[in-house]
Design goal:
Elements: E1 4-9, H1 18-24, H2 51-58, E2 62-66, E3 69-72, H3 74-93, E4 96-98, E5 104-106, H4 107-113, E6 125-127, E7 133-136, H5 141-151, E8 160-169, E9 184-193, H6 197-217, E10 223-226, E11 236-243, E12 249-254, E13 260-262, H7 276-282, H8 288-295, E14 302-311, E15 314-323, H9 330-337, E16 341-344, E17 355-360, H10 375-386, E18 391-394, E19 419-434
């Protein structure tokens, strides 16, 4: 099977081909200023919230078609082409080959990968007059893997890096902030196919360095944060962020910036108390109801949150226990289990079996430490004997500002190595996908 990667850059409005624009905006065909189509508005549009959206509408860069859908006007398109040129140059420098994949994608490919039913409501689905199902592609992992399996069969053809720049679609429940959260948007996405895992990681690093050069060329300050892979999948992922008060992503970072992570993935160190009473009560737990009843005596000292974890066609219940003042992090549970997605649930379907308990290390010391009489270790042993499903000790909480930096020993901070909050706009994302798509779509090579 072929290890593969996916890389994307978000938020750049990009259309058509270089040659078209260079001809349109060359010095030989430049329009007079009096002829330029730049519909400036006197009044600030009522539905704009952030300055960038307001300015682009007010000064004639965008025209709103409907909620989350915009027309790019001449000046915006001209700026866009300059961005395309920078991206093309850097993608070509690492061996990328540009293609144009279809926007309308057959459901058959998405069903092969298993994503048709798990993609959620953001996937825009439609039928043709014959009743065949399609989607408007928000991403093209299945399409590009299909191209490779049908046209590549020898190891001599790898590594192979294919990329495109085109329109994508997402049924946003609440489009906002102009181009930042739109229903139709433009994205550069590259897909790498390699012979080995080591080669695939090398491709990952090449693209990361190319992204560094892209943003540096545009004089754009950016930060790279560890991230959850979301519904795309894979076990390694990093985001490129522009730090902004208007960003929708919450980032936790050490003051010296040696550690930066999206809050979904972030690790923050805290002190750990002992809770012997919890172990005594847990000896009688046999069901989800018992867990809930047993926790009532602790008031808000122990926080319990429950989820349904989806892994392929299977589901199982999950109860995460964390200390007072913290929230459970289902993204970390999903990552631990190699699952596809999760949703909150009261677990009424899992009253007696097929649910697992996740004990956050904030409840006590970690299993295996010298203090074997700690309440958390005893609780682990007690629950493990119940055989609910999986019982696990680990970091299952949301990190927050004020936690100690997990890179404490490598830090040079003058502020006690504490994490602080920043907000970021995601403008790029790199994923290591492994065989997530090549395996179910049976993309193989010989040699």
């Amino acid at each position: 099977m072929l290890p593969s990667l996916r890389f994307k850059t978000n938020g750049f409005p990009i259309r058509n081909h270089k040659q078209t624009y260079s001809r349109l905006y060359s010095t030989h065909h430049r329009l007079k200023r009096s002829s330029l189509f730049v519909p400036v508005k006197k009044d600030v549009p009522a539905d704009t919230v952030i300055p960038s959206h307001t300015l682009m509408i007010q000064y004639g860069l965008l025209s709103k078609s409907s909620a989350g859908i915009y027309t790019l006007l001449p000046f915006a398109l001209r700026s866009t082409q300059k961005i395309i040129n920078i991206i093309d140059r850097e993608m070509e420098s690492i061996g990328g080959q540009k293609v144009a994949m279809p926007t309308l994608v057959s459901s058959n490919l998405w069903k092969e990968s298993g994503r048709w039913d798990s993609a959620g409501e953001e996937l825009i689905k439609l039928k043709d007059r014959k009743g065949s199902q399609f989607c408007l592609g928000p991403t093209h992992e299945e399409v590009v893997t299909d191209i490779v399996r049908n046209n590549v069969n020898s190891f001599r053809q790898f590594p192979l890096k294919i990329y495109q720049i085109g329109n994508k679609f997402r049924d946003e429940i609440r489009p906002r902030f102009g181009l930042m959260r739109a229903r139709e948007f433009i994205m550069k996405d590259m897909y790498s196919f390699d012979r080995t895992k080591e080669d695939s990681y090398a491709s990952y690093q090449l693209v990361k360095e190319a992204y560094n050069r892209i943003f540096s060329s545009m004089k754009t300050p950016f930060s790279i944060a560890d991230a959850d892979s979301g519904k795309i999948g894979g076990d390694k992922s990093q985001e490129f962020h522009i730090i902004s008060d208007h960003g929708e992503d919450l980032i936790l970072a050490c003051e010296c910036s040696k550690y930066i992570s999206n809050v979904e993935k972030a690790i923050g160190k805290i002190d750990s108390p002992h809770l012997e009473e919890l172990t005594r009560l847990a000896s009688n737990w046999k069901s989800v109801k018992d867990v809930r009843e047993g926790l009532k005596s602790f008031g808000d000292d122990i926080v319990s949150e429950s989820f349904v974890i989806q892994k392929g066609e299977d589901e199982f219940g999950a109860i995460a226990l964390v200390r007072k003042g913290r929230s459970a992090n289902a993204f970390k549970i999903k990552s631990l289990e190699g699952a596809d997605d999760f949703y909150e649930s009261d677990l009424s379907k899992w009253e007696t079996d097929n649910f697992s308990i996740y004990l956050d290390e904030s409840l006590g010391v970690s299993k295996g430490e010298s203090n074997n009489s700690s309440s958390l270790n005893l609780l682990f042993d007690s629950l493990e004997q119940k055989k609910f499903g999986r019982v696990q000790i680990g970091d299952f909480r949301m990190a927050k500002a004020g936690d100690s930096c997990p890179s404490l020993n490598q830090c040079d901070c003058k502020h006690g190595s504490k994490l602080s909050e920043r907000r970021g706009i995601e403008v790029g994302h790199i994923f290591y996908l492994g065989k997530k798509y090549s395996e179910p779509l049976k993309a193989k090579f010989t040699g």
